């Protein structure tokens, strides 16, 4: 198997003949127009049941007297069958699934809901779950988006498995088969929109030719209820966009009338071609991107420029909070972690209602552990969504198994205690806590073409699956969600279930242990690749020097009493917890405090010994992934097994590189010996310097990058 079908394999179920005969022979689809999500739902039900049970159902588009699987919207259902009884209230995209009656009812509040219900029912069947159920489910937030960072030339920023499925050579590719398959996967986990191009956007996306191309993408995604959105380059009006609806300007000042007209024309043009266009995503004034600050306009003025053009069409503007400009922190009182609140809090209430501020889960950038972004507590009159990253940029880039939901849950379940009232992040982004009309989640996914696998690795697909599940309902626990994915992806064998559960649930703690524990951030190369150990690069980083490590001490003082006062951005109770070393949890101690290496943690260990031990234990856990996976040999098809084993072997080795590189680096810096005598002594290792090699070329590596004795 190539993995192309991911969790939608609908593998044959053996020993299910009883159920097979109990399933209705008819699928009644209440919408016969091809391309509508309800029509798609009918096809999925027919194909899924055929594939799982080898049973052919008859698909019909009108009422049946025999028992049937009925799928449609509430309105469609009631027109044909009369009022639905005892169905709880459904929100947009919500659905009702009832398998207890004469007919099996799969009824969506809207078309999308009906399709989601069909996928839900098939997911049950594919997992051999034949319990009788009758329930309604509604989404926690209306924004359940994914972001692709695809470039127009077909490359993908922070993409780790090949080329774009959308773009090549500056235009939209002609074969959109993969885009349709991607939409199907997304719909099955209830994702409702994709932003298809990089947040570091290229204005050529807005050319007449490319908007036509985007409309072809929208066409192949529409049958799955997935809308398409675009990232914008703020400076586009000055960049010679080839589209007859606009001409080039000399300014992109958001308050300039000609600029307003320019964007109005572009938006009108897009909606005339793609009437269900989702909206825009804007990264402005960040990492070299143009923005309103260039003209001394506020970020809200910049955002409202786009929001106004989208408003007549019901489009949404996602405006990113990832804005910072604090370079050269030579006095060490500046702190990039403070930037988002500094920029956005004063603007609360100034954004239009169709605007959502898209906030990375932590205040820096997708690190292996970060405290919850305090911006979630600071926007009461502005819509907010959380930004997660499925792509695993700092988290092993899919060469390491890291099941992410346990990390995400540290933020989604965090109580910010605004006004001393329960203010859990998942209830803020759902709009519930501050009574906001829009909110939810976005995840950077960066799905691509290589190896027929949608992400770089088969095991990494659990993160995409779980992202969708949590975007719908963030109260769910990571483990049962994972287990649904395992059964759908690899079948029902109990050993597969227990083994992949164990590996996945241990994976984030393991990676955390060897890549950046105690809240020190991920000690990867921070300057370029974001992969592999390079603690030295953290000290060169002009934005933060986040580790602030020297021979005596480590960590960044972010308290108000002595440091950057980042802690002061939290509501009082949370602030008090982080302000004091005594009440700061060990796992964020180095994020908030600068302490001696010999500081004793709540655990009773010193900081340095904790470093040494956790790097050893994290790498040791990664070794077990190889043996755990090996125990599944013969139970999983060889193609996927081999691909997974290849990566686990790599991770096992690379985790040791991580361990020794980080430990040796701090041992050399502090000269504090490891209680267990391991660090700095690697008698079993064959150093590169000791080898006789030929046919190689010398290239420079950064200090410690090789974990070599001589570095
Ligand atoms: C960082 C990535 C960079 C992105 C940026 C962003 O390294 O490639 O452009 O985030 O989110 O993590 O805009």
Q: Could you walk me through the main structural features you see in this protein, from its secondary elements to its overall organization?
A:
- It is a single chain.
- The mean pLDDT is 93.
- Among the domains are: 17-137, Chitobiase, domain 2, CATH 3.30.379.10; 143-315 and 324-342 and 391-413 and 446-477, Glycosidases (TIM Barrel, Alpha-Beta Barrel); 515-556 and 594-670, Alpha-d-glucuronidase, C-terminal Domain (Alpha-Beta Complex).
- It is α/β, with parallel strands linked by helices and 711 residues long.
- It has helices at residues 17-22, 37-53, 74-81, 111-126, 177-188, 208-221, 257-273, 299-310, 339-344, 375-378, 405-412, 425-429, 461-472, 478-490, 494-515, 535-540, 572-579, 589-592, 607-630, 638-670, and strands at 26-29, 58-60, 68-73, 95-98, 104-108, 134-137, 143-147, 167-168, 171-172, 193-195, 227-232, 279-282, 316-320, 355-360, 383-389, 439-444, 553-554, 595-596.
- Helix 7 runs parallel beside helix 8 (299-310) and helix 15 (494-515) runs antiparallel to helix 19 (607-630).
- The protein is globular and about 80 Å long.
- The protein contains 20 helices and 18 strands.
- 35% of the residues lie in helices and 11% in strands.
- Helix 7 (257-273) links the parallel strand 11 and strand 12.
- The strands form four sheets. Strands 7-10-11-12-13-14-15-16 form an eight-stranded parallel β-barrel. A six-stranded mixed sheet has the order 2-1-3-5-4-6. The chain has a two-stranded antiparallel sheet with strand order 8-9.
- Bound molecules: beta-D-glucopyranuronic acid.
- Residues 157-158, 199-200, 283, 287, 322, 365-366, 393, 530 line the site of beta-D-glucopyranuronic acid (BDP).
- Residues 456-678 form the Glycosyl hydrolase family 67 C-terminal domain.
- It catalyses: an alpha-D-glucuronoside + H2O = D-glucuronate + an alcohol.
